[in-house]
């Protein structure tokens, strides 16, 4: 779960997740264009590095289709965090 917190700590990574929430299944090129339109000045290489961190945490899934790689949002790690505090350790033990 620590990887999820690390992934969410960076504002650029949070912006990437916001963009994928708005429009899932984008390519790296599409994502870079949309982020640039919102004032982010990160290079394509920097966005790729951010995506690697997000993929390691399980928040995004990279899907190859032909010669393109599509980026999909996966909110299941966030659901695990939510459930941790929603249920809580005391309630789950009973």
From TrEMBL:
This is Helix-turn-helix transcriptional regulator. The keyword Transcription applies. Keywords: DNA-binding, Transcription, Transcription regulation. Residues 1-93 form the HTH arsR-type domain. InterPro entries: ArsR-like_HTH (IPR011991), HTH_ArsR_DNA-bd_dom (IPR001845), HTH_MetalResp_TranReg (IPR051081), WH-like_DNA-bd_sf (IPR036388), WH_DNA-bd_sf (IPR036390). It comes from the Bacteria.
